[in-house]
Amino acid sequence: MKARLLAHTPYEDIKDRLPELGWRHLLPHLAYTFAVEKISRACSHQLVRHRVASFSQQSQRYITVKRLSERVVTPPTVDDSERFHELVEKANQVYLELVKSGVPKEDARFVLPNATETSLLMTMDGSALFHFFGLRCCNRAQWEIRRLADAMLAQCRDAEPEVFEKAGPYCYMLGHCPEGRFTCGGMAEALERYRPDR
Amino acid sequence: MKLELVAHTPNVETMIATSMLTTTSGAQPSALYDRLLNKPEKVRGLVGRAEVQHGNILEHNRLVWELEATGDEVLEATLDTKFLTFMRLGETRWLVSGNLRAVVEYAQQRKTPLTDALVASFRDVAPNVHGFLEDKER
């Protein structure tokens, strides 16, 4: 998996022009475009639930999935599972047979698993991005999207440290955990992990 | 009414072209972007075909303007389009932002002093998109 911040609205340009406005006021006016690469379709399904964003994703209608076994994201918990790898191989075989027999790719793809790799461009405004980090950097988020959120946050902190040193999981941003009885109990560790000078 | 572009994301048309190719190419978007940065002719060709694509290719950017306008003028604009973000800075001063899709669709749907100013403001930022809007108007 790889996340790269390709472009963003330069905060400094607006700050120079309107010094009376703090970065929090400007968040809705700032946009961040990432290349998000080699994540699973399971992860991209979670990503698109963040609706205040724009996505351009590799289309399985146009792009043939070749060598599926080399283009899947394998969760660590099933890495040793022979059944998982057998199923991926089988799906690959059936997919290619269908395509070869003339079935359109847009239909053949129905046999592909959620583990299939995908890449996309994603643009979010600053407010949506803070919310995304609040939810997805949280210890309770699923591992793949949490890893992605951490990679995106690192890029944002490099590009705009003044703005993004305040971003992280909600416990880091709010000073308390909003997860109620589902709390991971690891807030102290999270605060340490996201400390900007670390 | 007075409008001035204050900031924008860089390489707007390169990003449009990257977005177009991302959906149909097996190459990674960051590699496509890097490749296209040095190929303005290719970008021009791709953006020239942008009209037939999904509008979302115009969304991977943001433009920020400072606007001087009355409350009534801004109310009219917010009733016309929900995809521009307005923030009041003073009695008649506003910060406005949005992506190119919001501006293009707004300008295609209504012709007002504000849409004219919005379109004129991105002439240098996205010259090919600006060009096809002008051609349509002729």
Secondary-structure content class of chain B: alpha+beta
The major β-sheet of chain A equals: 4 strands, antiparallel
- The percent range for strand residues of chain A is 15-25%
- Main β-sheet of chain B, in a few words? 4 strands, antiparallel
- Gross morphology of chain A is globular
Determine the N-to-C terminus distance of chain B.
24 Å
Poorly predicted parts of chain A? none
Number of strands of chain A: 4
Uncertain regions spanning at least 5 consecutive residues of chain B: none
Radius of gyration of chain B: 16 Å
How much helix, percentage-wise, in residues of chain B?
A: 40-55%
Shape of chain B from CA axes? elongated
* CATH topology name of chain B: Gyrase A, domain 2
Which value, in Å, is the CA radius of gyration of chain A? 20 Å
Strand arrangement within the widest β-sheet of chain A reads 1-2-4-3
Order of helices and strands of chain A: EHHEHEHHEHHHHH
Helix fraction of chain A by DSSP (H/I, runs of at least 4): 40-55%
**Would you identify the CATH architecture of chain B?**
2-Layer Sandwich
Number of strands of chain B: 4
Mean pLDDT of chain B: 94
Q: What does this 3D model show about the protein?
A:
The complex is a heterodimer of chains A (198) and B (138). Chain A is α+β, with helices and mostly antiparallel strands. Chain A folds into two domains: 2-58 and 117-193, 2-Layer Sandwich (Gyrase A, domain 2), CATH 3.30.1360.170; 78-111. Chain A has helices at 11-17, 23-26, 41-47, 82-100, 105-108, 126-136, 143-159, 161-164, 170-174, 187-193, and strands at residues 2-8, 31-40, 53-57, 117-125. Chain A has a four-stranded antiparallel beta sheet. Chain A starts with a strand and ends in a 5-residue tail after the last helix. The model of chain A has no long low-confidence stretch (mean pLDDT 96). Chain B is of the alpha+beta class and 138 residues long. Chain B has a single domain (2-137), classed as 2-Layer Sandwich (Gyrase A, domain 2), CATH 3.30.1360. Helices cover 51% and strands 17% of the residues of chain B. Chain B has seven helices and four strands, in the order βαααβαββααα. Chain B has helices at 12-24, 29-37, 40-48, 71-80, 100-109, 113-121, 127-137; strands at residues 2-8, 63-68, 85-88, 93-98. Chain B has a four-stranded antiparallel beta sheet with strand order 1-2-4-3. In chain B, helix 1 packs across helix 3 (40-48). Chain B is elongated. The mean pLDDT of chain B is 94. At the A-B interface, strand 1, helix 1, strand 2, strand 3 and strand 4 of A face strand 1, helix 1 and helix 2 of B.
